[in-house]
Here is the input.
Amino acid sequence: MIPIENSLACSVAEHLDLLLTHKLSIEREFKLRIVHNLIALPGTRMRGIREVYSHPVALDQCRDFFRKHSAIRAVPFYDTAGSVKHVIETNAGEAGGIASRLAARQYGGRILAAGIEDDKRNFTRFFLIRRTARPSPRANKTSIAFSVKNVPGALFKALSVFALRDISLSKIESRPRRGHPFEYVFFADFLRGDDEPARNALRHLGEVADLVKVLGIYPALR
Amino acid sequence: MIPIENSLACSVAEHLDLLLTHKLSIEREFKLRIVHNLIALPGTRMRGIREVYSHPVALDQCRDFFRKHSAIRAVPFYDTAGSVKHVIETNAGEAGGIASRLAARQYGGRILAAGIEDDKRNFTRFFLIRRTARPSPRANKTSIAFSVKNVPGALFKALSVFALRDISLSKIESRPRRGHPFEYVFFADFLRGDDEPARNALRHLGEVADLVKVLGIYPALR
Here is the structure.
């Protein structure tokens, strides 16, 4: 399971490159609503908290909380769940961690404040990946990578293979191709499973693109 | 100055949204080669180092170093330069920070190992932004944002305005539009300044897109 977009771990680009260069297949996609909670030892009260640990990105997503509680110091920690584990294990009565409800349950912490993230529309998209493709009969979404030369109209030609077949793209992202200056890799998702129009579009794409790799065919989440 | 791609601060998406929603203009782009150095108090020797502080992303980009020096513990810190400041100020003789050459100079640290990042092709792209546009006469690159409805071929139509005029796109990225479900914002760069073909393309784009915003017209870096 790898985070792919809007991730806490800042690893989107790395993970896209991983999918491109390894023999891996996306089996499913997930979207997780990110909820940050202030978690402490049972018995600790909010006014007793002096330090709060979490991943820097999580701390940054809770700026309003730290503005309102100016006596509490934000301290960066390797990851969110780990910060709770640390607080509980070290019996730190003046400290808290910011993490998920699951982390509180897992390490025996108590939630002192729930949903303290500034922006409630905070989602992370994950891919479940496997070494071998196991296509689902409900698959209706395909993730691909393809590369084109850096000449005018190259991307336009590549996208024509979908437009001509009324296939919707739900994502596209260009990235410089490693070790190939002036070439780009595009990561795109389109809303078809493994059917005749999709196969035709991919065959057609193979004619206009230098490289085409299907990263996975899987059921779309709404 | 804001990091926009491949950033240490994980803030790409935030910064793109900022450019879209605020009255700001990109004046220049920069690319910085990211070089990570192990920096310590003058007099400290490599074998004396037990802990190394830095931003989690920087630590992660130096995995080979920590694999080779398994006695050294990687400790996450808020930012890279700050980790060096911390080591120097606290007189920590068994600790180091991972940061730039500039940070070493600024805080009087000594570089014990230079260029310890795993991947030497590590760049971050920055934008210099201003509240008011001050177009450069050497401008030959334009960053825009535009939105289209989630219907097949909408992006294809939008890109046709560039392809028909032989204008090269050097970047494109789709993002869900905040507060407008099933609509997308595309962030794109094309390789023209403020000339006749570019103005025609943008006027044409206005006919096929719901929203078009020029984020900046500036000199391209190679």
Observations:
- The two ends of chain B are 19 Å apart (CA to CA).
